[in-house]
């Protein structure tokens, strides 16, 4: 056997071994997908997981769709444009959302986070099913300004999506229902539950609160937890928190219910990941958390339908000393989940 022949045999054998090793590595990577895991300190999900069985293929399709700009009219805006992972899946730095043609919305982009436990969606609760929620931004003229049927036509022309839909659902048929379910599978996996607070509650890694964090936690439980209930740090209700009515006279919940009793009520947001999600409130009017606390302590207005919790004993707002505010801010930092905003599986691929 000549040296050249021997060399070729060794080369082919080496390539074979490399290919097998690469395939093994791919299989090992795939096998790490665990699907939806309920954190032990969280309640049972609200979303009906049995009606949309979460699979790796469905999640990967949903992730691709979440970052797909073809969901918009001019193929420039994706869900991820207004829900940026490093910003806790909000549009950090913008008071209100910036959509197609840089059109301005009227509300701050809410985070894509722990939606599996939500009964309603949007600041006004106008959507009741996670599987239907994406239709709103896709068709909204100041967000994506597209028709669902046009989105489906665009996806059908791309071999990538024909393959992804086939893997996720068993056939290559691309439908609205399948697209919505795939997006839900991605959003279901956007679980934030690995903050210091969570680790303390689960007694993990020997984590404990510092004295100032513990003091802030006590103040939180006394003065904030009626609306921002643990462990999600929202009770999912709609409340008027005494903000000065903005220039666009956003009526909040009443725009969905058409009930004047819901005027200026907005969904109670979660307090998780606040370090990543400024600015704050439904219209992003406060740039800092100090501004938020100042509002509750000194600036609550006697607006129509003001929440009863903010008007007790003849006084408006929440009694907070300067020291209370500092300790509250210290506690709120324990709700930051760095893992959530850096997870590679949630990032655009």
Automatic annotation (TrEMBL):
Mod. after translation: Binds 2 heme groups per subunit.
Residues bound to heme c 1: 79, 82-83
Span of domain Cytochrome c: 211-336
Sequence positions that bind heme c 2: 224, 227-228
Keywords noted in UniProt: Heme, Iron, Metal-binding, Oxidoreductase, Periplasm, Peroxidase, Signal
InterPro entries: Cyt_c-like_dom, Cyt_c-like_dom_sf, Cytochrome_c_Peroxidase/MauG, Di-haem_cyt_c_peroxidsae, MauG/Cytc_peroxidase
Cofactor: heme
GO molecular-function terms, A-Z: cytochrome-c peroxidase activity; electron transfer activity; heme binding; metal ion binding
Cofactor remark: Binds 2 heme groups.
Top-level taxon of origin: Bacteria
Main location: periplasm
Cellular component, GO annotation: periplasmic space
Signal peptide residues on this chain, from the entry's feature table: none
Gene3D superfamilies hit by this protein: Cytochrome c-like domain
Subcellular location: Periplasm
Name of protein: Di-heme cytochrome c peroxidase
Organism: Pedobacter cryoconitis
